[in-house]
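pipeline stage [seq->struct] | target=Nephrocystin 4 | organism=Accipiter nisus | residues=1315
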Amino acid sequence: MSEWERVFLRNVVLPPHCQRRRTRRPGSTAFRCVLKYLEGAALTQGAEYQLRLSLFDATYHRFFGRTWRSSRRAAHAAPPRPARAAFNETIYFHTSLNHPSIAAVVEVVATAGKGDGGSRHLSCGFGLIPLFGSGSEATDPAAEDRALKLYHGTPRALLHPRFQDPVEKNKYLTVMEKSHLQYALKTHQPLEAIFHLLPENLLVSGLQTIPGLLPAHGDASDCLQKPRLMKPVTCYLERLSVRLYPSLEEFEEELLDLLNSDRLLQANAAPDGDGVAVRERRLHVGVHNGLRFVQAPQVAVLVPEAEVVRGAASPSRCRGAGQALVLRSRIHLSEMVPHPAFGVCFQLEYVFCSSGRAVTLSSAPVSPSSTADIRSVRWAIWSPDLGAGEAEVVLPLRGGACRGPCQTLVYRTPTSGRSSRQVRGKHVESGTVQFYVSTDSEEHLVTLSASQLSVPARCGGRPLVRRGRGSWQEGGITHLEADLGSPDPEPRAGDQLRALPFTPLQVPIAAVGLQAGSSRTLLSRASLARLHAAGFPEILDHNQVPVEISEPVDPASFSPRLEEADLLQGNEIILQFLAFGRDAQDGVEGTWPKTIFLTFQFYRFPPVTTPRLQLVSTDAGLVAVPAQLLVRVNKDGTLGTGPPGLQLKYMVDPAFLRPGEQRWFVRYLAEHSLQIDVWDGDSLLLVGSAAVKLEPLLRQGRAAVRTHHELEVATTEYEPDVTVMGREALRHGALRPLGVRVAVRGRLHLCLANVGHPCEETPGQPPSRSRVVPAPDGAGSVPAGGRVSRARRLAEVDGELAAALCVRRPEARLAPPAVPGEATAARRRKLRRMALVRQQEDAGGGRTPQLSQRARHLRDLQIIDAYRERVKGESISRMLSQAITATRTVHAVLGTAEFFEFALKNPYSVQHTVTIEVDHPELSVILDPREWRHFKELTKSVTPVEEEMFHLRDDLRPQVYLRPKETVRIPFKYQTFSADPAVVVAQVGASPHFELFPVSGGKPIAILRVKVEPQPHVVDQTFRFYHPELTFLKKTIRLPPWHTLPGAPVGMPGGEPEMFVRCSDPDIICETKNMGPGEPQDIFLKVAGGPSPQIKKFFVAIYTDAWLAAPVQIWQFYLHSLQRLDVSCTAGQLSRLSLLLRGTPAPRRVQAFTSHPQELEVDPDGAFLLPANGIQDLYLGVRPRRAGSRFIYLNLVDVESHQLVSSWLLCLACRQPLISKAFEISLPAGGGRGCNKRITYTNPYPSPRLYFLYTNRPDLLQFKEDSFEVAGGEVYTIGLRFAPSQGAGEEEILIHINDHEDQNEETFCVKVVYQ
């Protein structure tokens, strides 16, 4: 027996209860338990005692793990102290079952000799050591030593059905008086470093040898107190093949026959002509240390050798060719350790499917959702000798009823009745696995190329295809590996590449987005007078009195009671956009728009895109008020004749609001802000975004309020992605957030007003704020005064019955009520046939009119009777369902969990196990008592919390046990992350509900219907990214410190909380990781972009609690997908390129607009005709002013319909030109007249040349002449005019001297110091 087998068989672990395995959370807690001494009057002097330690689950009455046994120790008495047996042994273990019912059980065993020389063991008592407290945290290790009280008997008493948890409630357990065990229990974090070597729930002593660990230092014998790992060795397995005997075909044929027979036996069916086929053959390869897999095994796909060499076979090939399973790649094992207990485990498994679903192996990946049958057929273990270097290994495969490391049932081995021809030896009767092994050396610094891989099938000891010769035939690609063919016939070891030990990192950007509050309301009286004189419409209250402009109310003085007690329940919200002006600090990089339009959304009203507004300057306001009035533009391009500005009104009254929605609207005004985007009306480029708080719209008992706001319209520019490479990526603290450039483009003048109106309709009663939904009671559901309902004819209730009973006489014919779907063709045909049949019955028979009328009445009565019999069962079921149905209305806000409890009562006189079924993924039952307790603390609920209340079935549906007539509270939460209005409306119409079914009867005993009313959510920051189309946007955003977030709690105990994120789009990867205390936390986003010019909108919610109860921040993201154009250029030099424009089905008159017209020139620069389905070139000239990477946006717009035709993203990679001369001057700061300077330039050519002058800072430097001509070898003096600066500092100004082709000749640098 090998060392691996001895370690493996000696440390088999009993798994915990299956229900416990399903509900455990990730992460494991490590413990160090020291059993010091046993003392008490129950000990006998001189007797030998042993301690045994096991893990126990009190909820499911189950021992798990493996029992640890101490050495035998004799008890000694030293009067007056009682007898004591000293152990002083340390036990280590870790478990992820962090639940209060998990405990360690200590058993005291006395040993005595028997007459035959053996020993007899007698259990003297036991004790329970709790591992986790009530909150599922590890027991407080503050106390160094603890005394464990012991109970009489054996710990097997814990398996008795009358055992109760906790132990103190058990009257059957008796405490051993004056006896205890002294112990110490602490968490042991150093053990986390060897979790990959030590299985969970395995109790080991510090004196035991753990494969993969170095011995303890010096005199210390405890190697687990500070464990040290052995150095791993990298192994490579190549040319791997598996042979199954007597042959691959016979083995698989026998296996398929047995599986098909088993399938028919389980189905109790006769042979149906269907069968079982092999879909895939997999090989799991992993390193095992005798205790567990060091890493998750690698999975590779094996293919029959015949498929690999198909087409290359010849008669000269040997008989054994094609009877092996081969691996077309090589396996890299980096976790091997030179220890005799370390081994490489191979597990061969087959994937089967019905022969009707069988497909070609090489082209059919097995999806996770498929119903394929997976069976393990063979396994092998190999303990390598890593010092032997390269070698070829042949291992026998194992199977049948023997314990293996994969913990699965394995197909039986061949029977012993086979002939010697079929079985070639006892050691290979189950098959062999053959491979070539090599360790990490110089030749493996570069791994195998995927171009040429040898076939490991052999014949007569010679390789079928030699290493480095030949190539694979073209094959399909499976889901685990690909056949990467290469035309190179002779690969060398030097051509093989190996990944370096680092990964590129996304440089995080700072979380600088648009925030509300950047508004200014303190305008001068002169500015207000000029805006008033412009003729904006007056805002009148409900008494037709003009509303004066007032200052916003202090947020601290806001009172919700004043809003609820207001007699004017109607709110007329008025948004008046007045003017838009350029900011004084705005640079000259972008042109100022002539027209603009705005986009925003108020409350739950539809999103608004305003008409185009012309910016009109006034003579008086151009200087005093740096803003241009907004005038509406008609569809024909002319200015509107009405008053200036744009005024929008929203009427929010009880007729618009749902019952109980009034307080949610008040909350919206108090907490939310209005996000406004300003767009250029001609180029359709974003000018900037603004946000204004809506709190000034709260009237607080006043008849009307009106406030004026001057909003900063800002735009945010992000640098292109930069990948950190080399050592900088690995250096601690190397990452720094890139500076996000936020530029204030202008200021938007906005007037907000709220005019109160009296309403005849009183608002509905607000819904109950209780978190408990009472169960419906059939008797109590009828009001005290009874139900009053007007009796109606059956024909008025059902349209089909009305059509059947319709009288055919023209004077008595009545139009039946409309029925949904009655207009369909099939229904019309049936009604026409019925009318024809009745006409024939009325016309024939020679009956008297009286008899015909009586027959018609009898027929109608029969129809009514048949109708009543048909709908009786359905009506009774509907009424009974209504009697057990309760309704709960939740106001769903994005990312916020709505918690409530449903009082469920067992109406029967017998106990029942009830199954809870929920039909909507956003409504769920809270199963974890810690989450339940968390939500009750948030909502101040006083109802009790019950531990271990639910049992999960195999289909993960919860069940709850109810005693007769018992009432329990089922905790629910509704949480939506969908921000799509269409999805929200669908949810409202669907009304998520759940039903409760007893297991025995299968009929519902209670139904809860949840009515969802979506509410707008807060947007704290807005981010807008531009990215190439049909590519992934990968961004890392650095979160601000948690205490700076507006919604973060104050004085949170335990230091910095961990942050969690969720995205509104499930197709977007959004995650964050806690990097440790004191380290910043980043959010990683991976978004798939669509085709140009698509805009994707989504939200990210940020939480500081692990249960995601309510977000502290909600961020809004826009992703603009544009066509990408990469440009490599030099600063100050013109680079020319062209774009190919493709026409649409209709001819259009288009014009190209750019975000940086000073740096990007277009030709033609005006409007031109784009022919239908034609092709036309658009010529571009790029002259960037600064070096580095940046984006420039280009839009092609239909100037007649103002629609976006195409959009491009120009990604500039700009180099800095070579600076030939440098100058430095000092100028006074704080304004002034500026300064004139001169520099000289010498023409280095013998002939006259024409030069052009450019600068990167035209706002600070102007030239006397933009171009000059100088003779060969002559000197020219260039006149410079430096503009004054408002502040002190330094500026570097570049002067580019370009030739007649606009290529850079020289660049001067002038350093200007403003003092």
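stage status: PASS
auto-comment: The CA atoms of residues 849 and 855 lie 10 Å apart. The mean pLDDT is 77.
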